[in-house]
Amino acid sequence: MAILQKHGKNSSPDLVCLKEKTPDKTGVAGGHQKKPLARVWTVVLLLGTCLLYCARVAMPICAVSMAEKFNWTKRDQGMVLGSFFWGYCFTQVLGGYVSDRVGGEKVLLLSAAAWGAMTAFTPVLAHFCSQPIFSMTLARFLMGLLQGVHYPSLASLCSQKVVESERGFLMSTVGSGSYLGTLVIGGAGSLMLDLYGWESVFYVSGMLSNFLFLALSLCVSFSLALSLFLSLSLSVFVCLFVPGPIITLESLGSGGPQSKLSRRHWLRLFKQPAVCAVIITHLCTASTFFTLLSWLPTYFKDTFPDAKGWVFNVIPWFVAIPSSLFSGCLSDHLISKGYDTAAVRKLMQFFSMGVSSVFTLLLCGTTTFPMAVAFVSVTMGLTTFSHSGVSVNVQDLAPSCAGALFGVMNTCGAFSGVLMVYFSGYLIEATGSWASVFALITVVNLVGLVTFLAFAEARRVDIDSSKEDLRLLFL
User: Fold this and answer.
1) Which of 53, 72, 98, 211 is most exposed, with the fewest beta carbons within 10 Å of its own?
2) CATH code at 35-226
3) Residue 152, pLDDT above cutoff 90
4) How far apart are CA 91 and CA 82, in angstroms?
């Protein structure tokens, strides 16, 4: 019996339009027909995440030069760097909720144009304000507001368009864009910083975001046209060649439309231990990653002042890209071979938070520059495994409201990022040592890992068991 998914009224074309009850969960017809759209969206979302981080990492790269020019202390740097995450907190849930209802691609399109303009305008605010510390804090706050909708929109788009056995690869591929963007701006930005000054890094990052806006606009237009063609073709195919009645699914399908959960359902959702575990683990993962992302350039500048910026701003992220892709392929391969989904998610998170912490602790001791680069590279490479762990687990648990729930997760992660980034600056200034920061990161990682290993699951919790039983009867 075939299952034909309806397109939401305001949603973009599904990457999975037709499904049959087959072992690979993709369907005979649907598995082949969805590939054109899937490839287009994967490339565009990868580009979007890449440029998002080009703009986001511009400030950490330029922070040392700006601190020298404007006479900032480490606490001042921490306040400017941490203000991004204050803004990042406020639009997570809203971005996910709106994406679940109107389509994640529309939210991504509008936000890209806004944060691109904000990035290019940042040097103007710095030079034409009598107190640059306040203007830069405000600029980073606004940048956080505008970029806060990206990942919830991405989670919403993925949960509605991609089947379970392929989410790991898609999310890890798109997630690798964050490391690609950091690599690009780390290499090119370091050179521009030396040759043309810190202002050029912001100007170029803002200009690159215009390409994202154009790419998303073209992709949305192409997808709408291709969706109509695919929908008509698949409908004709089902009517002519597939015997038996067609069941149209709304919220019960694995790629169902927008969330319409009531307050009572949300309260029931947050009472689930697996949901709480995902939120806590993501909080720990995000806060440690944000801390490393914000402070690593300053760490290398302070510890190895003669080192070339393009080396430590490029190599760790160059390692992270293939690592992210590998983790996605590995997780999807294990699930397709019949391994328990929850066990695979936990394995990925063990590498991300457990094994990486070993190399983070090694940075606490006395190291040479090559050793420090190697330890940081392995740490960042292993951290990418979370894209196939906790980041995908939210789609396993609640695909009908993954965007909004991911927004809650990212809000918690951003808030903890504010505290950890600022507190790290305080620790560095108070102790005069970076070992305290790396020890703090390790402790937070272990807390998140233990929580995830103890309580994480992969079964759906966003629907009543009675509805699930009814769905299985029709299948």
Assistant:
1) 211
2) 1.20.1250.20
3) no
4) 16
